[in-house]
Amino acid sequence: METLGNHVTAEEMMKAVLDPEAHTRVKSRLEADLEGLKRRVGMGFEVSVQWLPSTIKYKDGKQLLEEVLGDAIVIYAEDPADATKLLRHGFVEWLLNHHTKRYRLLINKLIELFEQIQYAEKEKLIDAITKLLTPI
């Protein structure tokens, strides 16, 4: 039998993916690990984890093993050992996203304001050019 990752056999990995009880055990372990991470850093209590090992998702031409969607860490990796590592990766990503959220909001508001000003200026310019092209 082929061994994968942290001494998990291919058979054990498929059992975790296909067997509902095994899937529930892995999901429960991921949830418990996430709770431990939250307690260690004292934040992120709104974050949840989803384990979707039979889901295949791509972004920019690369297969995703994990992604952070709002306050959810979604793990697509089938190997439970990989899922545990990816949980930590996803939690750190959530922490960074949470930290930079205010900056992104500020930048988006500035872009919105700039676009409004540009639109008003463009309309003035269109009116001026239209007057130039209108016969006297």
- Largest sheet data: 3 strands, mixed
How does the helix and strand content classify structurally?
alpha+beta
How many domain regions?
1
Shape: elongated
Fraction of residues in helices? 55-70%
What can you see in these coordinates?
The structure is a single chain. This protein has 136 residues and is α+β, with helices and mostly antiparallel strands. The protein has one domain (3-99). It contains three helices and seven strands; from the N terminus they run E-E-H-H-E-E-E-E-E-H. The strands form three sheets. It has a three-stranded mixed sheet with strand order 3-7-6. A two-stranded antiparallel sheet has the order 1-2. A two-stranded antiparallel ribbon has the order 4-5. Helix 1 packs across helix 2 (20-41) and helix 2 (20-41) crosses helix 3 (80-133). It is elongated. The N and C termini lie far apart (89 Å). The model is unreliable at 1-6 (pLDDT under 50).
Attribute tags:
two-stranded antiparallel ribbon, alpha+beta, 3 helices, 136 residues
Summarize the structure.
With 136 residues, this protein is α+β, with helices and mostly antiparallel strands. The chain contains 3 helices and 7 strands, in the order E-E-H-H-E-E-E-E-E-H. It has helices spanning 10-18, 20-41, 80-133; strands at residues 3-4, 8-9, 48-51, 57-59, 62-64, 66-69, 72-75.
